[in-house]
């Protein structure tokens, strides 16, 4: 099964590029940019990655991003992730970045997006890995700040497919950003949102109704509302689920308790993703291995996660068909 997972063509739909900052690169950038970090070694950093909940993670995660200053830093960060995609046979990735984490520190929006985009272009040419970019608004900041960020994104419409919503879910429901999302849709962006990670099932309904999202990031708390689960399955509304993240942030007690497999068997379009792999102990393959280790999954079910991700992606319809054929023939030959 491990071998089957390793070589299975995969699509990632939930990855925060700032969450792929490995401690080694954090140290290198801290030195290069003369930024102080409160650790002596990368091992020490890894040891500090014990979280009680989403907020305890976010507090450390935003500090880690302080080492990212120049365009080259954003390029190096993104290129390192694309090399990990190659290793894990991820053929397409839809990547979040948080402009406000950087613009709040005085880093220009252009610096961030240019560094990321150049690495994505290089990966497309040299590694044959395609990608899309999604800007996320930080939901703990106010509506005006989100509008300002949307404004900064307008000149980059050709590089950004969608807007999203991340950061602290508790106390910051989707309705806070309904007007920003309406404007983003008017400007031609697709929409996604984190909902039902730590927040209630109602946030999922509200993200769909008020933010008109194409898919829901996380969404695992949908099970608290059986009518919602039925609707997600009937309308094939995708959930971008992140198993290792959910364990690290104590959304579930352990992987055995994770509900992704039962959602798959209920017909929900669930996908497997890594969220913030440098902080949560693994990239795409590690997430698949962890599920296969703790749940009795067939090869067809594992392949279904990949097919779901292709269907849920923003890839053009013809390319989707080619990828699905590739997954089906890979599965048939194993
Ligand atoms: N930002 C980075 N990772 C996140 C997560 N899992 N939930 C909300 N915001 C995030
Ligand atoms: Zn996330």
From TrEMBL:
Zn(2+) binds at residues 14, 16, 194, 275. Residues 9-328 form the Adenosine deaminase domain. Keywords: Hydrolase, Metal-binding, Nucleotide metabolism, Zinc. It catalyses: adenine + H2O + H(+) = hypoxanthine + NH4(+). The active site is at 197 (proton donor). Binds 1 zinc ion per subunit. The keyword Hydrolase applies. The keyword Protein transport does not apply. Its EC number is 3.5.4.2. Pfam families: A_deaminase (PF00962). Substrate binds at residue 276. Its cofactor is Zn(2+). Transmembrane segments: none annotated. InterPro entries: A_deaminase_dom (IPR001365), ADE (IPR028892), Ado/ade_deaminase (IPR006330), Metal_Hydrolase (IPR032466). GO terms for molecular function: adenine deaminase activity. It comes from the Bacteria. The record marks 218 as: Important for catalytic activity. Catalyzes the hydrolytic deamination of adenine to hypoxanthine. Plays an important role in the purine salvage pathway and in nitrogen catabolism. PANTHER family: ADENINE DEAMINASE. Belongs to the metallo-dependent hydrolases superfamily. Adenosine and AMP deaminases family. Adenine deaminase type 2 subfamily. This is Adenine deaminase.
